[in-house]
Amino acid sequence: MRHFPPLTDPRIVRPSESALGLGLVTDLELLRLKTLARWYARGLPPDVTWEDLIQEALTRIIVGKRQVPDGVAIVAFLAGVMRSIRSEHWQRVEGTGARGRSVRSQSADRPVELVDGAPGPDQAVMAQQELARVRELFAEDPTATAILDGLARGLTAEELRVALGLSDTDYASARKRMRRVLLREGLTCVQR
Amino acid sequence: MRSKITTPVQRVAAFERVLEGLAEELIDSTDDELLEAARDLGMDPGMRGSAAFIGLKYPAIRGPSDFFGLPAALPVAADKGRQLPPDQGSQARSPVRKKRRKRRGQGDDGT
Known about the structure:
- The structure holds two protein chains of two kinds.
- Chain A is about 65% helix and about 0% strand.
- By secondary structure, chain A is mainly alpha-helical.
- The longest helix of chain A is centred in the middle third of the chain and has 32 residues, at about 75-105.
- Chain B contains five helices and no strands.
- Chain B has helices spanning about 10-30, 30-40, 65, 75-80, 85-90.
- At the A-B interface, helix 1, helix 2, helix 3, helix 4 and helix 5 of A face helix 1 and helix 2 of B.
């Protein structure tokens, strides 16, 4: 991943500023992308920040590496780009680890390929810790916590609603409460 | 309802499902909800220089850990530091010397 310099120098134009200037995104879309970038940066090592995710995603669009298909909302598309940057990071980390293992285990005539795509211990630990942090966000809302658990188990929205015994209205208001918490968390200036 | 998730693959998969499920909520959120959340934080995105755009239009706020090797920024290094053997740790610590105060009117030779 391209690591941007700290950019404490205000004279340096950031990709987000370029995207605004080019009219690729509006102010509100940029803010929503910030909430998504902060969200997708969860469970990544501290040296990969939300700014890296959003600036890299915007750079890929500005330089033409990724093109927004017609009829696709820019926020949804950039969310997908950030998701792929996130998985590229783990693939690179796991690939490096697997290469290290294969060097140790290969014999002279037949190298052993150990790349299996399974998450490594680092990713598993970070995922567990981050899941606990996400649960803390909704600790005061038992319905939201139950929805989180259902999501973790892979239930769909309708399955969740039925499993929790919620009406459509109650489920919608629980989701609205969750969105508010997520947006607040995404807009905060606190560095994680 | 909470099920036990044990293996690393299950942990990562569970987390990724939660991440994706809630990212959808962020994508689907309305502008009004976004502005309401900003107001909750005391931010006005319409204002010039709004804190909401820190890290986007303006440089991020840097903490001391960005410039100094504090344990918060380098947890691994901090852990390694704690693993020093006791004797090595005591040797590594330099003795504290008290700085002698000069009295007013005294020269370097103490006169």
